[in-house]
């Protein structure tokens, strides 16, 4: 069951998030139980239930919303709330048909719907929480401030500072129950309050909430005061084993090594640099047993099949000479049975490493012996007697070869921080945190602070497969993989399951859920080593559809990413065929797509609004959207359609591709226009 226990108090009478308790009967033969919802990316790990007798409980602080949820272990147990009759079906990936039934928790929405319906303005339904960087953040000389109120109740909102500055706020986005207002003040903001207008009357909203005239003074405003390289950067994702010239063209990818080496990446740097790339994100390069290397045995050793330290330092040097940084995949969630820590814990129940993992049942002697044999024989193949059985320890997706780390042990946290320092000192430009959505917030924050302590300009990107705006980005990371944006792009342009208005509303709601500097750092992607190739998904809508997706990717705030080979139209279905060897034969490349991506990347480098600019969007009928970016007196408008559409512009713009001035545009299906002007 779930129960809303109350609200946080921001200050005085001013209210913040809802305090929600989730509980269930504890299932038998389960050592650890987790709450799984959109705020955990539908994965067990971030929120753990505490056992109290025969029940488990977890208390979570949430903003208003409707949350699907289940209870689950890391292996074998997953169930909806038997005490809650409300149910929904969730499709967990936009390009997969798999769905699952979840219970529903409605948090705060009834109060907001009632206030919206009755036009009510009361202290509990107007929200600004300066402790949350989604409500106030600093971005390159501007302070961006947000406030939420019941939908349709407020007609106008202003920010008013103690120094006498008044700035209007616009209704940036809305959902079924709330409007989000956004405003900007040049420079660091002085203590401030809000002036709200409703039904022709003005009401102050200050430090003590509605009706209070005292100014709000945040203790800290997070953000960036200079253009860090990862703001609007372009990434190139390399799966090292597949980035090889020696395998030729394969129709199917074996789950074994193809022989890619660090030297292959170095030799491919000129091609990567031709795409205007700022950073290469490398999936794991550490000593491991599998071809994907997510079963890391030693984070401080380069896998021998990739090369050695000389090869790594050569790659760092050659990439740096081309202005390209290297972002490493750190496998923070789990280890390998062949790691020193796990193998010692397995062989010796009294080992201090035993508490680094969670052994929740007594294993059969045959299970222990099989694992010992696996380790002693070099971790080559999982013994057959373990096939079909569940591990006796917590593991990633029930995988014997990926034992989950126990972050309730401070030594495990310190290990992670040590790995970060080790690689930053050896030339890494930052990290992508694998399974970041399933690691406790306090661990992510400690990791982030350690990275920034060692290298202020290094980036931390979390893997979050759903619900990135429900994580404290800006506090625990600079960025996250923007699978939410990817899903919206596919739904609008490829599958046609949402119209232009729905796309715009949901994209703006996504960006309003995070600080502005985080929105500009988000790792925006169409494909990765965990998804089918984007060219394969677009076979149902055609080549122009694929190109329109890339235009959208480079036009929205954040950092566009290119998965190796996608720039030349490589195809492949799910894992492992999305990891086929890089195609180096230029005769089979999609050269029109490659040319487009190079032009888009060059435009982002030349036009600051596309890389750093503020963002707005609006629908053009049901089939097209207008994306607007502006920065320092320059404006870029991108018109993008999936069907026939026309747009009259408020003034003449320069079409950057044709070089002509235009004031009216007709769009064919899957077409676009990129327009530029100086703002008056």
Description:
With 680 residues, this protein is of the alpha+beta class. It starts with a strand and ends with a strand. The protein is built from 15 helices and 35 strands. The radius of gyration is 26 Å and the shape is globular. It has 5 domains: 2-107, Immunoglobulin-like (Sandwich), CATH 2.60.40.10; 113-224, Immunoglobulin-like (Sandwich), CATH 2.60.40.10; 235-334 and 407-610, Glycosidases (TIM Barrel); 340-398, Oligo-1,6-glucosidase, domain 2, CATH 3.90.400.10; 612-678, Golgi alpha-mannosidase II (Immunoglobulin-like). 22% of the residues lie in helices and 30% in strands. A hairpin with a 2-residue loop joins β31 and β32. A 9-stranded mixed β-sheet has the order 18-17-16-13-14-15-12-11-19. It has an 8-stranded parallel β-sheet with strand order 27-26-25-24-21-20-29-28. Strands 3, 4, 7, 8, 9 and 10 form a 6-stranded antiparallel β-sheet that branches. Keywords: Glycosidase, Hydrolase. One of its GO terms (biological process) is carbohydrate metabolic process. GO terms for molecular function: hydrolase activity, hydrolyzing O-glycosyl compounds.
Tell me the major beta sheet. 9 strands, mixed
**Care to count the β-strands?**
35
How much of the sequence lies in strands comes to 25-35%
Number of helices: 15
> Can you give the helix content as a percent range?
10-25%
Give a short summary of the structure:
This protein has 680 residues and is α+β, with helices and mostly antiparallel strands. It contains 15 helices and 35 strands.
């Amino acid at each position: 069951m779930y129960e809303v226990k109350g609200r946080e108090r921001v200050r005085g009478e001013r209210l913040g998030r809802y305090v929600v308790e989730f509980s269930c009967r504890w299932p038998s033969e389960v050592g650890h139980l987790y709450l799984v919802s959109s705020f955990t990316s539908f994965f067990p790990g971030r929120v753990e239930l505490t056992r109290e007798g025969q029940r488990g409980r977890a208390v979570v602080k949430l903003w208003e919303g409707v949350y699907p949820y289940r209870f689950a272990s890391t292996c074998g147990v997953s169930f909806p709330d038997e005490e809650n009759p409300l149910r929904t079906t969730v499709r967990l990936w936009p390009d997969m048909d798999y769905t699952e039934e979840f219970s529903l928790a409605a948090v705060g929405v009834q109060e907001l719907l009632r206030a919206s319906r009755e036009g009510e303005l009361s202290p509990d339904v107007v929200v600004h929480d300066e402790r949350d960087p989604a409500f106030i953040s600093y971005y390159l000389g501007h302070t961006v401030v947000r406030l939420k109120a019941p939908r349709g109740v407020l007609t106008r909102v202003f920010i008013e500072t103690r120094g006498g500055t008044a700035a209007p706020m616009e209704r940036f986005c809305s959902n079924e129950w709330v409007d989000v207002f956004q405003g900007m003040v040049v420079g660091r903001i002085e203590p401030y309050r809000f002036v709200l207008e409703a039904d022709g009357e003005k009401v102050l909203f200050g430090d003590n909430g509605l009706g209070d005239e005292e100014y709000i003074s945040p203790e800290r405003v997070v953000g960036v005061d200079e253009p860090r390289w990862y703001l609007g950067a372009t990434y190139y994702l390399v799966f090292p084993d597949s980035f090889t010239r020696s395998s030729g063209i394969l129709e199917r990818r074996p789950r074994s090594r193809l022989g890619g080496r660090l030297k292959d990446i170095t030799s491919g740097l000129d091609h990567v640099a031709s795409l205007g790339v700022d950073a290469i994100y490398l999936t794991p390069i550490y000593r491991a047993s599998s071809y994907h290397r997510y079963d890391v045995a030693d984070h401080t050793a380069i896998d021998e099949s990739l090369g050695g330290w000389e090869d790594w330092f050569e790659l760092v040097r050659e990439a740096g000479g081309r202005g390209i940084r290297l972002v490493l995949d750190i496998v923070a969630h789990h280890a390998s049975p062949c790691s020193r820590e796990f193998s010692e814990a397995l062989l010796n129940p009294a080992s201090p490493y035993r508490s680094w993992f969670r052994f929740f049942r007594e294993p059969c002697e045959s299970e222990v012996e099989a694992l010992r044999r696996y380790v002693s024989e070099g971790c080559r193949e999982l013994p057959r007697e373990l096939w079909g059985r569940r591990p006796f320890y917590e593991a990633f997706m029930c995988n014997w070869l990926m034992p989950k780390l126990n972050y309730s042990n401070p030594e495990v946290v310190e290990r992670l921080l040590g790995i970060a320092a080790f690689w930053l000192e050896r030339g890494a430009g930052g990290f992508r945190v694998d399974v970041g959505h399933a690691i406790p917030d306090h661990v992510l924050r400690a990791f982030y602070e350690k990275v920034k302590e060692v290298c202020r300009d290094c980036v931390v990107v979390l893997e979050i497969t759903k619900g990135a705006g429900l994580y404290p980005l800006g506090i625990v990371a600079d960025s996250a993989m923007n699978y939410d944006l990817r899903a919206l792009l596919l739904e609008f342009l490829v599958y046609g399951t949402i119209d232009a208005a729905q796309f715009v509303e949901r994209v703006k709601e996504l960006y309003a859920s995070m600080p502005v500097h985080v929105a500009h750092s988000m790792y925006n992607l169409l494909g990765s080593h965990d998804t089918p190739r984007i060219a394969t998904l677009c076979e149902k809508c055609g080549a122009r559809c694929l190109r329109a997706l890339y235009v959208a990717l480079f036009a929205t705030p954040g950092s566009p990413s290119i998965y190796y080979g996608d720039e030349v139209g490589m195809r492949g279905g799910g894992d492992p065929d999305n990891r086929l060897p890089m195609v180096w034969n230029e005769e089979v490349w999609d050269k029109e797509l490659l040319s487009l991506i190079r032009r888009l990347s060059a435009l982002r480098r030349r036009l600051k609004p596309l890389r750093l600019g503020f963002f707005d969007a609006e629908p053009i009928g049901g089939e097209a959207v207008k994306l607007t970016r502006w920065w320092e007196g320059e404006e870029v408008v991108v018109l993008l359609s999936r069907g026939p559409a026309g747009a009259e512009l408020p003034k003449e713009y320069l079409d950057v591709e044709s070089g002509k001035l235009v004031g009216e545009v007709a769009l064919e299906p899957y077409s676009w226009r990129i327009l530029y002007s100086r703002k008056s």
